[in-house]
Task: inverse folding
């Protein structure tokens, strides 16, 4: 803990960022985020947008898995529902894109709540397997339904706001950033409310939570719905940003990637979700760049890169789980703790 | 009628393979409470190593298969010692994720070495069609069914009579008690993982023989093992066998009797999975765990 900080009102004491250093760090990060797009090239902006979308999805999953302790392997399916709802509402019903995004979130929340129903009876790995089945069934539904165009991709008109094309990298960045900030604010505040505390109580010991008067089933469903809302948001944003929706972006691999994001970032940590999203988006990009740099010296490299990426992905998960199960959020905390007393730490 | 017979035999052989994979899965779960998402990739590794020895090195197939099985034992011990043992006592999500990571790693290594395109496996099982009541069944499916039955029977005897088998059952029942009886639980874990890897390798070789050596097809079996073991009960070996056969038959019948454009056969095991979880989460033979505060 920081010493030498004196609060004279409850309001100051309850602040999300109670110490000056924390506020300075926040301002630095915000300024960097605002200045970044003016200096970045298109490639970097694309990566940044992927990070923004992944962060929203990861926070959604973390609400369910990290905070409520319900393991979900259905993330890809829920994102698909968000993306397809948003795209189909625009294409078939002519709904404005912003309304379609909002409706997609609500639809995903409802579907997520529905798939949360088995959590009444199942927990732990049984629930994980049930969500795995949900993922397979949703995937099948998308491929076989005449509505979604099956394996063909859906093409959406680019979203326009006052005549500005938001699917352009530079423009989308601002939309994504604002929505991510909104999501973060919601999530960090959620866990200061009764509902959020109930989620955490269920994760830590569900029977004890029940005894203390938490309606476990209701709050589990609520956790599924809340989580799916944001997962749907990230899916819908992906649809609007790419303007192309195809099922292969939402397979079981996606579910696994998102679980990896929150594990590597830090389970039960909102900021960890973002660190994880940054890490898991940049890692393959960096590997690809290294690969193409090596291509001239080692020509076989080009064909091997996808496998190297996959191997590194698996290895990263394994190594993090063995050596730092609390993820990047813990590493960052350790660094801060180290420098708090530096150079006079004992 | 011929069609029905044909489907039944195909379903039975598929089911037997599922049962074999499910057996390894249940073994690991029983012994160490680990859900192994990499079971499908063990199939892949086993099949490709056998392919490497037989086709690329040019060994006779018997020796190739034996070497592949030996490699699978090593892989099992290696995985248990290096990856799973540090995670003993960690929450369930860590254990699930570490096997998912392992699955990704193994598949990447296999695909990196042998590529992703399907390869023709040297079919050392004869595939001359046999006529049974008008249905033509390839011989290799019979042999596969036979091999699997012998293996499963062998494992039943192993658990019933051999010292290691009894020690494994004791460990599955109560680790503390097993430890105090002088059973090395670590050794039991290693044995469970190597047996699981070996049966997966055998299953992989059989699949490669009957169909072809194709990464996606072989590893897809890894996902379908979940309906199998949930249906039979996660900790029941007879359950895995029965579950495998039921799912295998169900899948083939669905493929045979529903319009193919629906693609229902790929998803039907998972629908069954959800239904079973809703109605009878511990499966047909699984031990019901009652939670107390």
Result:
């Amino acid at each position: 803990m920081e010493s030498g900080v004196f609060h004279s009102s409850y309001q100051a004491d309850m602040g999300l960022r109670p110490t000056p250093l924390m506020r300075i760090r926040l301002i630095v990060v915000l300024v960097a985020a605002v200045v970044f797009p003016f200096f970045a090239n298109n490639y970097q902006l694309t990566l940044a947008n992927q990070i923004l979308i992944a962060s929203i999805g990861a926070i959604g999953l973390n609400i369910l898995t990290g905070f409520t302790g319900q393991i979900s392997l259905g993330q890809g399916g829920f994102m698909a529902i968000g993306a397809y709802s948003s795209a189909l509402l625009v294409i078939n019903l002519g709904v404005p894109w912003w309304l379609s995004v909002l409706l997609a979130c609500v639809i995903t929340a409802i579907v997520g709540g529905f798939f949360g129903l088995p959590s009444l009876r199942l927990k732990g790995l049984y629930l994980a397997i049930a969500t795995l089945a949900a993922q397979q069934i949703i995937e099948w539904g998308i491929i076989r339904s005449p509505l979604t165009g099956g394996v063909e991709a859906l093409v959406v008109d680019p979203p326009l706001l006052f005549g500005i094309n938001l699917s352009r990298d530079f423009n989308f960045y601002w939309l994504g950033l604002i929505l991510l900030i909104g999501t973060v604010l919601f999530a960090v505040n959620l866990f200061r409310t009764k509902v959020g505390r109930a989620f955490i109580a269920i994760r830590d010991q569900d029977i004890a939570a029940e005894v203390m008067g938490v309606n476990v089933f209701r709050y589990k469903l609520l956790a599924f719905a809340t989580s799916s809302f944001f997962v749907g948001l990230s899916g819908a944003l992906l649809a609007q940003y790419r303007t192309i929706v195809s099922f292969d972006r939402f397979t079981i691999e996606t579910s696994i990637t998102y679980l990896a994001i929150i594990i590597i970032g830090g389970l039960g940590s909102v900021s960890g979700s973002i660190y994880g999203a940054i890490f898991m988006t940049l890692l393959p990009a960096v590997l690809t760049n290294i690969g193409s740099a090596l291509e001239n010296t080692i020509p076989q490299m080009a064909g091997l890169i996808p496998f190297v990426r996959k191997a590194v992905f698996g290895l990263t998960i394994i190594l993090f789980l063995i050596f730092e199960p609390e993820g990047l959020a813990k590493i960052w905390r350790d660094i801060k703790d180290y420098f708090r007393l530096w150079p006079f730490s004992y | 009628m011929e069609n029905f017979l044909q489907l039944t035999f195909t379903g039975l052989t598929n089911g037997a393979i599922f049962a074999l994979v499910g057996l390894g899965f249940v073994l690991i779960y029983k012994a160490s409470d680990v859900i192994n998402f990499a079971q499908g990739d063990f199939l892949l590794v086993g099949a490709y190593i056998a392919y490497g020895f037989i086709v690329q090195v040019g060994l006779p197939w018997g020796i190739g298969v034996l070497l592949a099985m030996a490699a699978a034992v090593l892989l099992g011990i290696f995985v248990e010692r290096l990856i799973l043992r540090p995670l003993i006592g960690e929450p369930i999500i860590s254990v699930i994720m570490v096997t998912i990571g392992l699955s990704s790693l193994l598949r990447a290594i296999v695909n990196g070495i042998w590529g992703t395109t399907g390869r023709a496996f040297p079919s050392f099982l004869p595939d001359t069609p046999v006529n049974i009541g008008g249905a033509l069944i390839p011989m290799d499916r019979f042999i596969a069914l036979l091999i699997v039955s012998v293996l499963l029977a062998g494992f039943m005897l192993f658990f019933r009579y051999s010292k290691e088998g009894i020690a494994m059952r004791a460990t599955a029942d109560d680790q503390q008690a097993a430890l105090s009886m002088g059973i090395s639980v670590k050794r039991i874990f290693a044995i469970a993982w190597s047996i699981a890897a070996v049966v997966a390798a055998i299953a992989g070789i059989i699949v490669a023989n009957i169909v072809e050596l194709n990464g996606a097809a072989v590893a897809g079996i890894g996902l379908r093992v979940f309906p199998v073991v949930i249906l039979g009960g996660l900790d029941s070996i007879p359950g895995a066998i029965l579950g495998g056969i039921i799912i295998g038959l169900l899948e083939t019948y669905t493929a045979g009797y529903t319009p193919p454009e629906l693609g229902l056969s790929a998803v039907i095991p998972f629908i069954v999975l959800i239904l079973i979880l809703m109605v009878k989460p511990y499966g047909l033979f699984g031990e019901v765990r009652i939670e107390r505060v």
